[in-house]
Amino acid sequence: MRYVDEYRDPQKVRQLIALLHDAAGQLPHTPRAPLRIMEVCGGHTHAIFKFGLDRLLPKNVEFIHGPGCPVCVLPMGRIDACIEIASHPQVIFCTFGDAMRVPGKTGSLLDARSRGADVRVIYSPLDALKLAEQNPTREVVLFGLGFETTMPATAVTLQQARARGVTNFYLFCQHITLLPVLKSLLADPQSGIDAVLAPGHVSMVIGTGGYDFIPDTFLRPLVVAGFEPVDLLQGVLMLIDQTIAGRSKVENQYRRVVPDAGNPVALAAMDEVFTLADDSEWRGLGVIARSGMALSPGYQAFDAERRFHPAPQRVSDDPEARCGEVLTGRCKPAQCPLFGSRCNPQSAFGALMVSSEGACSAWYQYRSQECEV
Amino acid sequence: MNRVTLAHGSGGQAMQQLIEQLFLTAFANPWLDEQEDQARLALSLLTGAGDRLAFSTDSYVIDPLCFPGGDIGKLAVCGTANDVAVSGALPRWLSCGFILEEGLELALLERIVASMAATARAAGIAIVTGDTKVVPRGAADKLFINTAGIGAIPVGLTWGASGIQPGDVLLVSGTLGDHGATILNLREGLGMTGELRSDCAVLTPLIQTLVNVPGIRALRDATRGGVNAVAHEFAARCGCGIELQERALPVKPAVRGLCELLGLDPLNFANEGKLAIVVARSAAERVLTTLHQHPLGRDAAIIGEVVAQKGVRLTGLYGVTRTLDLPHAEPLPRIC
Predict the structure, then answer these.
(1) Touching check for A5 and chain B: CB below 8 Å?
(2) Selected residues 59-78 of chain B with any CB under 8 Å from a CB in chain A
(3) More confident residue, B243 or B331
(4) Which ipTM value was assigned to this complex?
(5) B68 and B179 belong to one structural domain
(6) What would the 3-class secondary structure string for B229-254 be?
(7) How many separate domains does chain B show?
(8) Are the CB atoms for A203 and A258 separated by under 8 Å?
């Protein structure tokens, strides 16, 4: 399969691993105090576990699994608000599949569907708009979720809704922006992140310039990387090379997808439809300043929360859950006292067990037998 | 008369007409033609073929009703026939119960019944007894079918998961996930073009080529939950573990493409015409050759082995072995 197999080729992977081992020998880091690379994106985390890439790294290099899984960092209270809206009999509530099982205080959207709510899994935001046009007597709510990766598609959908005069279509906006959380994590003196693998798909939209503060202010090297094993390992090699050379700069491994300037058409659509909101709550990480997105004044007629006024919900994370420590590299998933017992994919207690891209869920899915032995 | 009405299930003239004009005509065979309340099967036909009865039932509620490679009628024959056939028995007789939603187009019902009849006939199976119910609109989704099947297991044939031992190997009879990927694409309106086609087939002819091959431990028809679910069933039943090799898994490019796009795994996708077979290592090559010689087994492959350490694991392309978890529920596509 083109664009996949060449980036999974075992021979290329073996060559890269050999190069990594050679390069890592020149690092001052040791297995007890390894070079800690945060892969920001949940897609990276999933690929690392699926292919076992962390097992192939030199012992003095380790991955810290970052916060870039939009489903994981979704606060429980927001799910409760979704369920409240979805429970209106006239509402068709549309969501991406992996948000279906995220538990709120009153269960998940999947539970709400079994109680009679009309909740539908969509594959593109445009499917939701089509539903609105096909069902003029119903009110269709799109659950807009994700970072800059999914924001352009939501924005274009709302532009089309406005252009076509669709008045029974709404957005529940849970879009969040990635850079503030990186800033917050790097500013935490306990986080211990030595280098950053930046997310390919977010960067495809925003470009690479936005990351300059990471080498400039925090003196950490950063490489934008793709999602296949060859991409990830090459990204790690580039970070090790920077570290050895004592450099900190933004580099782009994923040039076949990520232009340095990003995608101007997508950025323009986002700029028209969204505006930076105030602080936003991130499950497992708390409130992060100016990290949420809201609809811009011209699009507020589409705001589902203005239309349905769900009760504000605030559900605190359980103090026993160590999600925040996993996210900052201070704890491995299986070291959390709740892992696999009270917290498992069927009844996720903490954020990182919720989506298959969360570090704990990936660990559970791909490593659970190692916890038994 | 172009739609099913409640009268078609009422026991009156409309029902008689439907049974005579549609079911009796399509399924015609001596047992059904007797029109008693039950099929009367001569025991000698069974005892001549074996010493134990294989008996299985399944219900079919698939949506959409028709898909590339089959329809709910063909599926209702294949699925139950295969469940009987993996014991080594020849599935001979099937019962069939229809639950019809009021308003169902009769032309569609006729098409599905014709498909059932053709599939059964081609496989040497007689549909010998049946039932029809009609429920009000909204009480069922168009059409549900239940079938039950029987056949005799030949004397001395004892295939079963409890005989599986460490050192045995696991084979599949062909590509993974063709049915599941086809249905997902249609049901969710994903609009993928390419060679997505259900593998729905009666596997009896393929299974019968294995009846006299020594060293076969167990066969399963890898339907819902895919080969992963069967691997977990085998492992749990025999108290051993199973390790699969990722690079050995046969997957069609179109199915792989769909899985890559949605973040799903073909190991978890349903098949409707594929066997998972555990055989003694010494028999593996012979079984593989036998499978390859049959059109239904052309893409057969050895995909893993049975080991003493419990659990199901997958060794990836780079030699790292990881847990192969059985999904709690139907996997949902990832957001990005």
Answers:
(1) no
(2) none
(3) B243
(4) 0.87
(5) no
(6) HHHHHHHHHHCCEEEEEHHHCCCCHH
(7) 2
(8) yes
Q: pLDDT per residue over A321-354, tens digit each?
A: 888 888 777 888 999 999 988 888 888 877 788 7
- Select from B199, B165, B209 the least CA-distant residue to B68: B199
The last residue of one of the domains, among A287, A303, A318, is A318
- Mean pLDDT for all residues in chain B: 95
Set of chain A residues whose Cβ sits within 8 Å of the Cβ of B194: none
Q: Does residue B120 sit in the same domain as residue B28?
A: yes
Count the Cβ atoms, other than its own, within 10 Å of residue B62. 24
- The 10s digit of each residue's pLDDT in A53-78 is 999 999 999 999 998 888 888 888 99
Band (pLDDT 50/70/90 cuts) for residue A317 is: confident
Q: How many CA atoms lie within 13 A of B123 on its CB side?
A: 35
B323 close contact with A: CB closer than 8 A: yes
B332 confidence band (pLDDT: 50, 70, 90): low
Residues B24 and B49 in one domain: yes
Q: Is A103 on the interface with B (CB under 8 A)?
A: no
- Which is nearest to A210 in space by CA: A175, A265, A146, A260? A260
Q: Do residues A325 and A315 touch, judged by C-beta distance below 8 A? A: no
Q: Are residues B123 and B182 in the same domain?
A: no
Q: Which residues pair with B321 in a beta bridge?
A: B315
* Whether the predicted pLDDT of A371 surpasses 60: no
**Residues A252-296: tens digit of each pLDDT:** 999 999 999 999 999 999 999 999 997 888 888 889 999 999 999
Tokens of B69: 């490679």
Lowest-pLDDT choice from A101-105, A244-248, B82-86: A101-105
Among candidate residues B104, B120, B153, the one where a domain is terminated: B153
Q: Which residues pair with A136 in a beta bridge?
A: none
Residue span of the structural domain in which A339 resides: 323-372
Query: A65 is written with which tokens?
Result: 């699994």
Among candidates B90, B97, B33, B107, which has minimal Cα distance to B60?
Answer: B97
Backbone conformation region of residue A290, classed left if phi is above 0, alpha if psi is from -120 to 50, else beta:
left
Q: Is A357 on the interface with B (CB under 8 A)?
A: yes
Please indicate, yes or no, if residue B328 is contained in any of the structural domains.
no
A240 and A311 inside one domain: yes
CATH number, domain at B111? 3.30.1330.10
Task: Categorize the per-residue pLDDT at A373 as very low, low, confident or very high, splitting at 50, 70 and 90.
Answer: very low
Same domain, B115 and B24: yes
Quick: pLDDT tens for A200-224: 999 999 999 999 999 999 999 999 9
User: Contact at 8 Å (CB) between B192 and B73?
Assistant: no
Backbone angles phi, psi at A138, to 5 degrees: -105, 165
Q: Answer whether residue B89 is part of any domain.
A: yes
Mean pLDDT of A290-314: 95
Residues A131 and A173 occupy one common structural domain: yes
Establish if B336 belongs to a structural domain.
no
What mean pLDDT is predicted for residues A177-182? 94
Measure the CA–CA gap between B153 and B164, rounded to whole angstroms: 19
- For chain B, how big is the Rg over CA atoms in Å? 21
**Domain hosting residue B111, numbered range:** 6-153
Beta-strand relationship, B216-221 and B275-279: antiparallel
Contact between chains at B335 and A146 (C-beta distance less than 8 A):
yes
Q: How far apart are CA B336 and CA A12, in angstroms?
A: 26
Interface test with B, best of A11, A113, A175, A369 (most B CBs within 10 A): A369
Among A229-243, A271-285, B29-43, B272-286, which stretch is predicted with the lowest mean pLDDT? A271-285
Q: Do the Cβ atoms of A149 and B260 come within 8 Å? A: no
